[in-house]
Amino acid sequence: MKNYLSSFNHGLPSVRFAGIREPLRHRRIRTGIAPASLLFSLFLLSLLFLMLPCSSVYGKEEATSQTGFFLDTVITITLYGDEDGSAMDGCFDLLEEYEQMLSRTVEGSDVWKINHSDGEPTEVNEETVSLIETALQYSELSDGAFDITITPLVELWDVENKALLAASEAEADTNESENSNEAGDSDQSEDTDESADSAQPEGSSLIPSSEEIEEALSHINYQNVLVNGTTVTLSDPKAEIDLGGIAKGYIADRLEEYLLSCNIESALINLGGNVQTVGTKPDGSVWKIGIQEPFGGSYDIIAVIECSGESVVTSGTYERYFEVDGKIYHHILDPKTGYPTDNGLTSVTILADSSTQCDALSTTCFVLGLEEGLELIESLDQVEALFITEDETMYRTSGFPE
Ligand code: ADP
Ligand code: MG
Fold first, then answer.
1. pLDDT higher than threshold 90 for residue 36
2. Which residue's CA is the nearest one to ligand 1's atom 15?
3. pTM over cut 0.90
């Protein structure tokens, strides 16, 4: 279980990224990789500590918590009543299994095989097929706003790596300027900052050309994904799929199912901000899930949702992005324009029983925008949503808790 970090700790990347956002505020190219989801994990953990002020025992049930890193995401699972630790082990085994099956970047995964098939039919697991079929339904529902053939654009924009690169450069900058400050020479420190600025990649080089975007767009069309039994064929050999907008939700549902089969009736699953509650708290009261203010700190909670078995999933611009000349380029891409979705939204939160549905709909509604997104959610039974716009106005569907 190579990936696991353990136990009521503070997942390694959170330390790295959470601390670098502030010094970057004044920079021309600013970045942040998933600070919200990472900080959200910490927030949930701290909630847990608040619930368990002196010990890790809630009522009669002992709480155990474990954090790991899968699918480029910090994952935290908290279980009550897992006395021998076997349910936790089972959860992390499942996470590993699904990463090996559904990750685009893991060589030999089902998605990797489909993407390297050069248009030939590819035999994959039943679960992969079923998830692809579900994803295609959201494409139909949204007229292609949600589209798993988004990969050429994901690779072209490469938001995650650009954000990481800028983050590590900024970190190096900060260290350098701290060292200069320690030497007590403030003029020198300013000089160092300037020279570091000029070493930054030019903002415009981070943005793909319109020709590159056109070329990528020409391979994006969910109708190119053909499913027959357990065989998947991409009718455009240059098409590639990416399940990043739905896989975490699917995995959260499978983890919930598994925990219930282990008779764990009280648990909290947090896959980088995709939260799945299992049952209620051990004393029978509801879970309270905080929705973080976009671009706020981890404790800037703007809404609290009470859950018992439901899932709450947020898609937002502040999760993975880089910034050039004050404009944010994030990871939720619009298959119509080829650019990061730019419609005035900063986040969409979906509340429903199924985490797969929440995950797919949060991405879908983000791309659709406020009006169409609200309309779509109102047309669905037992799904609610909260939209937040750049001016920090909140729009709730009729059944979303106040
Ligand atoms: P996160 O995975 O960060 O929680 P989302 O669930 O909104 O956020 O999914 C964003 C991911 O989905 C991107 O990183 C990319 O892999 C993929 N993606 C981006 N744009 C789209 C889109 N229009 N349709 C389907 N998937 C998308
Ligand atoms: Mg999603």
1. no
2. 244
3. no
